[in-house]
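Troubleshooting log. The previous structure file for this entry was overwritten by mistake, so regenerating from the original sequence record. Sequence copied from the archived sheet and checked twice against the printout by T.R.
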Amino acid sequence: MGFFDKIKKALVGEPKEADKPQESSKAESPEVLEDAGIQEPSGKTVSDTTLDSAPEATDKPKTDAAESETTESKVTESETAESEPKTEEVSADSLSAENEGAPDAPIVSETPASTPFAPKMPVPQPAVEKEAVQEKYTKGLSKSRKTFGQRLNELFANFRSVDEDFFEEVEETLIGADVGFDAAIKITDALRQEVKLKNVKKTSDVQNVIIEKLVDLYGEAGVGEVNELNMQPGLTVILFVGVNGVGKTTSIGKLAHQFKAEGKKVLLAAADTFRAGAIDQLVVWGDRAGVEVVRGKAGGDPAAVVFDAMERAKAEQADVLLVDTAGRLQNKVNLMNELEKIKRIIQRVEPNAPHEVLLVLDATTGQNAMNQAKQFKETTDVTGLVLTKLDGTAKGGIVLAIRNELRLPVKLVGLGEGINDLEPFDPNEFVVGLFKGLINE
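Regenerated output below.
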């Protein structure tokens, strides 16, 4: 079974909530049984809740039955009034309940009757959070999904038969969708074989095969890939690299906000001392995230800033240190030497650091982002990628190209402009968001 078969149901667009009503109904039935199980030991409470009039007349004395019939509303009011102080004075009322016996039994049974409803509240929360992430991917990749669907529709409108010209057009369409040259060649070759095996004549039957091959190739390229950040039990040092204007400083601020929300002690290091306003921009994000920024003077030594940040992180027992670096292309020797110097300074304090070197890429630039990734990979020990502005581009297919050609794991993706819109990369959610609804049944 290929990767496509595993997520086909999600790609077709069938609602995952179809199974939820059954789960909810199954979940409610045990709670009803639990309610009955709680009330059965008292005996009278079960009869009171199920049959109001008859059991009261049979189980209780006539005097009690008469009082309950005439002053039924008063009894309920007194019970509710008695239940309120009992939550405050548990020890005193519990002793009196043992002495008084039967009259207090309904109150004892009513208070636990509400307890089975308490655990109901947190149960849907993980599902809601998961749905929110799915919705972010679906909305964030809507432009890419729409553009890719339009390209396929134009392709099939121009061809009515499957021939060699059709395959050449498929190849050009895939390259135009930023899935990469190598991926386009592989998919087109696999498509030729599939068409011959299945003896496909209509172009409309080819759309599912194209997407199936794309998804399977995407899954194969991700075997053994680790998309989670390499977090350490002590101090975790994450170095951010990338050209100016890709959203590097913004990504640092958003990630700092997430770590702070998780209860971690976070520090930021403003080591981009060359770009005008870079330090002030990071300070603004530090204020938004509620974390402190270690900084020096504009035009100063970036390595000195990093050293101060490392010493302070160790002294204050920080959990995470996020380091912003100068944003210029890595083909300049002086900048490469500067990055090597920063690494040496970090390793003086923490020999195994930096634990992540994240390259930030602007997804809207398409193949330009691919070229940047190639240059940085050749000159820097990049451990993962951060793809920003994925919601504002129709070139989401670049993830397939990066995964297939560079074998660099995507760690984080920007799916919106909000401070909470930097999400850990989920390969399954990404491919569903990119191709959802494009499969024809």
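The mean pLDDT is 75. Archived copy saved in two places this time.
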